[in-house]
C-alpha cells in the first residue's frame, strides 16, 4: 500500500485544480456574482487584476459558475461575425470538455443546453458535463480601445438560464492547514466524482481516507509524514515550470497536446491550475512561455524578440506577447508601467516594422529610446515572465513546423 507521505503528495497535486476552481468561484460570489448567471467583465485586465493568474489583456471575459446537481442550464451565444469569441466549459478538474464559439460552432451564435453527468440529454445542441460543478469562461476579442464599446455589445448577448442554487462550499484555499485542505479535497471529490480512468491514482491516495476523511485518526508520526508529503506536492506543482509542459525549443516552452484537457497528466494539470488556471487547449490557443537564463528574465537587462519578414507568427485570429511579474508563490500578474502596456501584438496601435518588413519587440525596464518606444514592452526591475498567445493557430504552428524565434539580449 502507498505510504502516507506519497498519498498526501499525490492528493494535493490531484486535488489542487478542484481547489483553485472552488476558491475562484467563492471569490466571485463574495464580489457579488451569482451562481448560474454570467458576470461580464467590461474592461480589459490591468496590473490591479489579481483574481486569476496570467490574465490576458486582449479579450473581455464573461464568467459563470454552475452547479448542475439542480438540473440543466441553457446558454445563449450571440452572433459574433468576424470577431473572435470562445466559451470554454470546464469541469471541476479544469478540463475543457467543450468550447463553443468561433472555431467550433461558428460565427452565428446559438442556444445550447448544458446537462450534468446523469441528466437526460434530449433535444438539439446538448453538451454534457462530466461533473456537476462547471466553470464557463468566455473570451471576446477587443481590437483596440476604439473597439471596446462594440465588443461590449457582443458580450451583452452572452446569457444563461439556470435553476437557482447556492454557492457550494465554503472550501479551504490551497495554503490551508493539511486538515482543512484534505477535507476540502474530500468534499469536492464527493461533489464531483472522479472518472473511472483515475482509479489507479485514487488508490495511491487511499491511505488518507478521503472517502470518509477523519484527521483525528492520524497520530503524531502520521501527521509528520502527511505534512512532508504536502510540502513535496506544493513543490512539485511549481517545479514543472510554466504552462507548456512540452518541448523547450529556442528558449520557448511549447504546450503539450494535453494542455486544457489533461487526461491522466495530473502533474501538468496541477501546475497549470497554479500558474495558468483556465488555459485553453492548443487548437484554440497556443501558449508559449519564453525561458530566461534562469527560467525567468531580468528586467534590468534589455531583451529583443525578432520576427523575420518572411516568417510571421502563423495564426488565423491574433497573437500577443504578455509580460508578467513573477510572484513568490508561482503565480504571474501584470505589472504597473509608464505606458500602461501589459502586452504587445499584431493589433498594437502604432507598432512599427523595420524597412525590410521584419518586426522587433524591445523588452526591459528602461525605455529603449524614441525610435523603439512604439515596440517597447515595459518590464519591472526584477524577475518577469513572457507568455506568447496565438489564437486559432495554423497547422504549421500546431505541428511544430514553425518555431518562434528566441528572445535574446539586446
Give the C-level CATH assignment of the largest domain.
Mainly Beta
Through-space gap between termini: 55 Å
The H-and-E topology, N to C, reads as: HEEEEEEEEHEHHHEEHEEEEEEEEEHE
According to CATH, the fold-level topology of the largest domain is: Jelly Rolls
* Low-confidence residue ranges: none
Tally of helical runs: 7
Radius of gyration: 22 Å
CATH superfamily placement of the largest domain: Domain of unknown function DUF1214, C-terminal domain
Tertiary shape: globular
Count of DSSP strands: 21
Biggest sheet details: 8 strands, antiparallel
User: Strand pairing plus helix content: what structural class?
Assistant: alpha+beta
Number of domains: 3
Architecture per CATH nomenclature, i.e. the level-2 architecture of the largest domain = Sandwich
Strand content: 25-35%
Helix content: 10-25%
**Mean pLDDT, all residues:** 94
Q: Mind sketching the topology for me?
A:
Blueprint: H1 4-30, E1 39-40, E2 59-67, E3 73-77, E4 85-90, E5 96-101, E6 110-115, E7 126-128, E8 133-141, H2 148-155, E9 159-161, H3 178-191, H4 199-205, H5 220-239, E10 245-249, E11 252-255, H6 266-275, E12 285-290, E13 297-298, E14 303-307, E15 319-326, E16 332-333, E17 343-345, E18 359-364, E19 376-378, E20 383-391, H7 395-399, E21 407-409
Helix pairs in contact: 1-3, 1-4, 1-5, 1-6, 5-6
Amino acid at each position: 500500500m502507498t505510504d502516507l507521505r506519497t498519498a498526501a503528495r499525490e492528493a494535493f497535486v490531484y486535488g489542487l485544480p478542484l481547489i483553485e476552481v472552488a476558491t475562484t468561484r467563492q471569490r466571485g460570489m463574495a464580489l457579488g456574482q451569482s451562481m448560474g448567471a454570467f458576470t461580464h467583465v467590461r474592461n480589459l485586465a490591468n496590473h490591479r487584476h489579481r483574481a486569476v493568474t496570467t490574465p490576458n489583456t486582449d479579450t473581455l471575459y464573461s464568467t459563470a459558475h454552475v452547479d448542475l446537481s439542480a438540473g440543466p442550464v441553457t446558454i445563449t451565444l450571440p452572433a459574433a461575425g468576424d470577431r473572435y469569441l470562445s466559451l470554454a466549459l470546464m469541469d471541476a478538474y479544469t478540463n475543457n470538455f467543450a468550447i463553443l464559439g468561433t472555431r467550433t460552432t461558428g460565427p452565428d451564435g446559438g442556444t445550447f443546453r448544458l446537462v450534468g453527468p446523469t441528466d437526460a440529454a434530449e433535444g438539439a445542441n446538448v453538451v454534457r458535463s462530466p461533473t456537476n460543478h462547471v466553470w464557463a469562461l468566455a473570451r471576446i476579442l477587443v481590437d483596440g480601445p476604439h473597439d471596446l464599446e462594440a465588443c461590449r455589445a457582443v458580450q451583452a448577448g452572452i446569457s444563461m438560464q439556470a435553476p437557482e442554487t447556492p454557492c457550494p462550499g465554503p472550501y479551504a484555499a490551497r495554503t490551508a492547514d493539511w486538515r482543512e485542505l484534505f477535507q476540502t479535497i474530500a468534499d469536492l471529490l464527493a461533489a464531483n466524482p472522479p472518472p473511472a480512468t483515475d482509479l489507479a491514482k485514487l488508490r495511491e491516495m487511499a491511505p488518507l481516507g478521503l472517502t470518509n476523511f477523519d484527521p483525528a485518526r492520524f497520530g503524531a508520526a502520521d501527521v509528520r509524514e502527511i505534512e512532508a508529503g504536502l510540502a513535496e506536492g506544493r513543490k512539485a506543482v511549481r517545479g514543472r515550470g510554466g504552462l507548456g509542459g512540452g518541448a523547450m525549443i529556442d528558449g520557448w516552452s511549447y504546450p503539450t497536446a494535453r494542455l486544457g484537457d489533461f487526461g491522466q497528466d495530473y502533474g501538468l494539470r496541477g501546475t497549470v491550475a497554479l500558474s495558468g488556471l483556465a488555459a485553453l487547449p492548443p487548437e484554440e490557443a497556443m501558449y508559449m512561455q519564453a525561458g530566461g537564463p534562469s527560467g525567468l528574465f531580468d528586467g534590468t537587462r534589455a531583451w529583443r524578440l525578432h520576427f523575420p519578414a518572411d516568417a510571421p507568427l502563423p495564426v488565423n485570429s491574433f497573437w500577443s506577447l504578455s509580460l508578467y511579474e513573477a510572484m513568490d508563490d508561482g503565480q504571474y500578474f501584470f505589472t504597473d508601467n509608464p505606458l500602461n502596456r501589459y502586452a504587445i501584438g499584431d493589433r498594437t496601435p502604432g507598432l512599427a516594422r523595420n524597412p525590410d518588413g521584419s518586426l522587433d519587440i524591445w523588452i526591459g525596464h528602461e525605455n529603449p529610446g524614441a525610435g523603439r518606444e512604439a515596440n517597447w514592452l515595459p518590464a519591472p526591475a526584477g524577475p518577469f515572465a513572457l507568455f506568447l498567445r496565438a489564437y486559432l493557430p495554423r497547422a504549421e504552428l500546431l505541428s511544430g513546423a514553425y518555431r518562434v524565434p528566441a528572445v535574446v539580449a539586446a
